[in-house]
Automatic annotation (TrEMBL):
Belongs to the TRAFAC class TrmE-Era-EngA-EngB-Septin-like GTPase superfamily. EngA (Der) GTPase family. Transmembrane segments: none annotated. GTPase that plays an essential role in the late steps of ribosome biogenesis. The keyword Ubl conjugation does not apply. Associates with the 50S ribosomal subunit. GTP 1 binds at residues 9-16, 56-60, 119-122. Keywords: GTP-binding, Nucleotide-binding, Repeat, Ribosome biogenesis. One of its GO terms (biological process) is ribosome biogenesis. One of its GO terms (molecular function) is GTP binding. This is GTPase Der.
């Protein structure tokens, strides 16, 4: 059985970097209509022996009339509804910001199956941030580096029960 994983979290935590690592060039569905914002990107991911669909909540970085907060909420809710589970990414180097708490609340309210990921955790600079991530109350964070490909085995272990 296959499953769908939504990568959610505030802008700049590394969602697209992870999406690209998981999907490579196997982008299944892109909205290629000119002028249309690519809010949600979907691709076929491979990790170890797992094959699954992954959704990247993109588009948060683009300026629109809608407030970032409203847009964030709407996109995240849509992604959560499409997915069997969510990978909630935080930035291990920055630690937990109020915006991260907003996402945690959305995910709790939606009763989402959440895997918490502390990204940018290569090296020691993220040690404090990874510890701080426990305060979200979403369980043990998977320490990872989307850019350097670290923690992918741990991510696989976290995903296996969903598959
Ligand atoms: P998004 O807005 O959540 O999609 O974040 P992006 O994937 O666009 O990444 C934002 C920035 O963080 C980019 O400059 C990435 O190169 C950087 N980044 C992503 N993953 C990592 C990581 O594991 N370690 C470090 N140091 N930087 C990362
Ligand atoms: Mg992105």
């Amino acid at each position: 059985m296959s499953f769908t994983l939504a990568i959610v979290g505030r802008p700049n935590v590394g969602k697209s970097t992870l999406f690209n690592r998981l999907v490579g060039k196997r982008l299944a569905l892109v909205d290629d209509q000119p002028g249309v914002t690519r809010d949600l990107r979907e691709g076929e991911a491979r990790l170890g022996g797992l094959r699954f669909t992954v959704i990247d909540t993109a588009g948060l970085e683009e300026a629109t009339d809608e407030s970032l907060q409203g847009r964030m909420r709407r996109l995240t809710e849509r992604a959560v509804e499409m997915a069997d589970a969510c990978l909630f990414l935080v930035d291990g180097r920055v630690g937990i910001l109020p915006a991260d708490e907003v996402f945690a609340d959305i995910l709790r309210r939606k009763n989402a199956h959440v895997i918490l990921g502390a990204n940018k955790a290569e090296g020691k600079a993220a040690d404090a941030g990874v510890i701080e991530a426990y305060s979200l109350g979403l369980g043990e964070p998977v320490r990872m580096s989307a850019e350097h490909g670290e923690g992918m085995g741990e991510l696989l272990t976290a995903l296996e029960p969903i598959a």
